[in-house]
Amino acid sequence: LDWPVTSLQWGPLLQQNNEFIVQRLYFSCKTDGIYNSNDNSWTNTPNYIVMANLEIPNDEHYFINDLKALFNYDSAKKHPNLKVKQIISHPGEITVIRSSPMNRKLLASKSDNNMVYLWTSDKYKLGNINNTPSTPDMILMATKSDKHNYALRFTPSLPKIISASADKLELFDI
Questions:
Q1: Confidence (pTM)
Q2: What is the C-alpha to C-alpha distance for residues 37 and 34, in angstroms, rounded to an integer?
Q3: Fewer CB within 10 A of the terminal residue: the chain, N end or C end?
Q4: Residuewise pLDDT in 10s, the chain (174 residues)
Q5: Parallel, antiparallel, or unpaired: how do β-strands 41-43 and 20-29 relate?
Q6: Could you give the CA distance from residue 98 to residue 121 in angstroms, rounded to a whole number?
Q7: Alpha-carbon dihedral of residues 43, 2, 110, 9, nearest 10 degrees?
Q8: Measuring CA to CA, how many Å separate 152 from each of 11, 43, 107, 166?
Q9: What phi and psi, each to the nearest 5 degrees, are found at residue 98?
């Protein structure tokens, strides 16, 4: 990977056969970019969310050796078992990402300004990362806080998401 991964979330199981399990994987990368919220643009490389499919071998011995190899590669994006499908250029630093247990296409992220962004994953295509952030499907206005926080969860059976800060819990209908 070119940049450090700051948040990681398993997505839905996409396929399973005798050789492989294909699992969706979401991760965010922190870059050298500086986000300007006044004009919604990035200087240098923007922070981004990657949506990838990870092919996990079903053979336990092969799995252990192959998974070690995945994380020992100089560039994981060249590994044959990790296939990047989509990239979302994010507005601001990403503190956490979560996938919805009810809707496998719905992804939420939280920024350093405590805003919660909702993304429908199939809207974003694989392409070059540009300095204009992708447009989220919905922005939830969480209470402003001076402290970064990482608390964000979808409810398992209702169309709701909860966000927490140092002194508040906020439940949103989505």
A1: 0.78
A2: 10
A3: N
A4: 678 888 889 988 899 888 888 999 999 988 888 888 888 888 888 888 989 999 887 766 555 555 555 544 444 445 677 888 888 888 888 989 999 999 988 999 998 878 899 999 878 766 656 667 888 999 998 776 676 677 899 998 889 999 887 778 889 998
A5: unpaired
A6: 12
A7: 170
A8: 15, 27, 11, 13
A9: -140, 145
